[in-house]
Amino acid sequence: MSYKYKTIVITGPTGSGKTQISIELGKLLCYPIVNMDSKQFYNSNKILSASPTDLEKNTIPHFLFNHIPYNQKYSLGQWVEDIRNIDKKILVGGSIFYLKSLMAGIPIVNISTETKNFINNITDKYNYLKSLIPNTFIHQNDEYRINRLLEFYIETGYDFHTFPNKYKEDMYIIYIDAKNIEQRIIQRTNNIFNSAVSEFLVYGYHKELEVIIGYKDIYEYINGNVNMESCINNININTLNYVKYQRKTLNSVKCNYYIDDINKIDYNKILSEIIL
Questions:
Q1: What is the pLDDT of residue 96?
Q2: How far apart are CA 272 and CA 137, in angstroms?
Q3: Paired sense of beta strands 171-176 and 257-259, if any
Q4: Smallest Cα–Cα separation from 219: which of 211, 231, 237?
Q5: Beta strand pairing status for 106-107 and 166-167?
Q6: E strands within the chain?
Q7: CA atoms within 13 A of residue 161's CA, in its CB half-sphere
Q8: What is the pLDDT of residue 247?
Q9: What pLDDT does residue 30 have?
Q10: Going by DSSP bridges, is the β-strand pair 106-107/62-63 parallel, antiparallel, or unpaired?
Q11: 240: which DSSP letter?
Q12: Rounded distance between C-alpha atoms, residue 243 and residue 193, angstroms
């Protein structure tokens, strides 16, 4: 069987049903599922981050889900290196930065030991970076990004945006935005709450995981600062605010197929546009 697209993208706001659709489509295409949600990279808090369950993962191969410790850095560049090794795949997730970066093209460069040693000897890295790229907008305390930008510029003579040789993939993009997303999120929070609390108690508190929606709320609940009802309500409010942000940002993404009701998906239409 021949395909017009080797990479399928399923994106949309959290709680829209991306996991369910990815598995169905993965079975039809015999494509593995590959994570494109930065919150689901961590090997802890799988429930709160709405990672696929072990049962779902056993139905079809899944890659890059819950594969790194909470305190390990995992960059866009590392993610691209990992997905490049998977020939045919379905990328699933709502991380807009990853999707837009892949659409715009991502520079792939190996940083030499000489460059790393040179940067390690720089006293004021922030101002040195500003002297090289004056229009760079980056916080002076963001040490990780400062190092990455310096490494790249010193190695290539370009910043990320002007680098001429970027990696891209030819993608078929499916955008899901369920009409009943508010009810789906409220139901999901109610269903997972007790399990998410139990999971939190197993792994404990780690500041690095505060990016996961609901993480800080459950921490406050466990410490007795809020009751269960308030905690669940706060999680729902924060999740729905994130949905608004995702919708606003994803509006600029040109998709091939838009879905507003996951119960009325025309898989035949999708297959006809993917298969030669």
A1: 86
A2: 44
A3: parallel
A4: 231
A5: antiparallel
A6: 7-11, 33-35, 62-63, 89-92, 106-107, 166-167, 171-176, 257-259
A7: 4
A8: 92
A9: 93
A10: unpaired
A11: H
A12: 19
**Can you give the pLDDT at residue 165?**
84
C-alpha of 18 from chain center = 13
Residue-level pLDDT at 139: 81
pLDDT at 135: 85
Sign of CA dihedral 209, 215, 220, 221: negative
- pLDDT at residue 10, rounded to an integer: 97
Sheet with 62-63, side-by-side order of all strands = 62-63, 33-35, 89-92, 7-11, 171-176, 257-259
Give the model's pLDDT for residue 199. Answer: 95
Residue identified by tokens 């993404």 is 253
- CA–CA gap between residue 73 and residue 66 (Å, rounded): 13
pLDDT at residue 137 in the model: 78
Q: What is the pLDDT of residue 2?
A: 82
Q: For 29-61, b where at least 16 C-beta lie within 10 A, e where not — what string?
A: bebbbbbbbbbbbbebbbbbbbbbeeebbeebe
Counting Cα atoms < 13 Å in the Cβ hemisphere of 39 gives 20
The whole-number pLDDT of residue 117 equals 94
- What are the backbone angles phi and psi of residue 198, rounded to the nearest 5°? -60, -40
Residue for token pair 């139905």: 59
174 phi, psi to nearest 5 deg: -105, 125
Inter-helix orientation angle 96-104/228-250, to 10°: 20
Whether the Cβ atoms of residue 175 and residue 159 lie closer than 8 Å to each other? no
Q: How high is the pLDDT of residue 20?
A: 92
Instruction: Tell me which residues of the chain have a pLDDT lower than 50.
Output: none
Rounded to 10°, the helix 215-222/228-250 angle is: 170
- Give the pLDDT of residue 70: 85
Q: Which of 172, 178, 175 has the alpha carbon at shortest distance from 17?
A: 178
